[in-house]
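for the writeup, i need someone to sanity check this before i put it in the appendix. the sequnce is what the collaborator sent (i think, or maybe the updated version? ugh). structure was predicted straight from it, no edits. if anything looks off just tell me and ill rerun, i have time this weekend
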Amino acid sequence: MNPYDADLHKGVMRLLVRAGSLISHVMPSCSGTRLYFFFPSFHVGGAERVHADIVKCVSQGDTAVFFTHRSRDRKLLHEFRRSARCFTVWPLLKYLLPVSTGFIAGIINKNSRAIVFGCNSRFFYKLVPFLSDSVKTIDLMHAFGGGSEFFSLEAVPSLDQRIVITARTREDFRCLYSEAGIDPLHLGRIVLIENAVDVPEIYPRKNRTGRLKVLYVGRGSEEKRVHLAGKAAAVCARQEMPVDFVFVGNVEHAIAREDRHWCRFMGELANPSEMAALYASADVLVLTSSREGFPMAVMEAMAHGMVPVVTPVGGIPDHVRNGENGILLSHDESQLPAEIAARLSELCASPDLLDLISRNAYDYAASSFSRSRFCGAYRELFGC
């Protein structure tokens, strides 16, 4: 696009945004709504559960949640509806993006006390520059690697605060801001709030059966590298180890056909009680990701006395201490299946070691993953 066409395009976009803003002025005021959230989806996922938890912590009957992308399923929608009015707006954004931007900004700007919070949503970052200075804007970054860290850069000067869930992500921002020439003063707006999970009041003792039950919990996306867990299951089977691999999530397609025989697939489980029962019955969590923030699955597993056997990416090494409350694997993808099998063999051969790491994992979760701390931090952030 030549400079003239680019300027013309920007001019037309501004006119359409302005048109949407003018339309909002003839709409009834939403002064009763103070908190506005913009999330991509409400399907089953760790990030989506965190988003629902945040809304639950801060909502006081004055909350609206906008979903900006199509969701794969509706399994978590009820969690959001318990705390907020929910709007699925992706069809509007697909066909009427500039007008919708102006319209929604105009609605929000009617309330000078409004707080707008977004995560993983491009639309949120397009919206922020059109909000009035009196509107507080906050975003959440789960981890680097998904693209949000780059397409959010233009909005950085307009963000009042940025939330990260690991200290590592804060350091990643430090490097990115330096490379992008962003004023380092904006680093002072970054706040660390780690996620939380429900932790049983007492240590959930395991009913050891002589066979090790190993879980994988998560998506089948590329960065999860779940095929490596499938290969580890096959290695264990060939070595006739007393190990059973159970996979939770829509992951069967991501595992090699020849390895699926050694895997049990549960599909997606949205019911927290079902997941808690599964965690309570299992011994080990295996994750083979190439990048992460700090996975909810690791937190939930540790809370139920499972031993995390995981790659040292994202915020995982900040919480999982090798040989103490978990096992950290190497980065070498080619060796991971054999390495996982070797670590599981050690746990099979030493029930006392398994019990010790299990107990340490639970104790760490009980002291570190408190919901009261999590909600308290977000309530303070939102002025609740």
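Residues 1-9 have pLDDT under 50 and may be disordered. The first strand starts at residue 35 and ends at 39.
thx in advance!!
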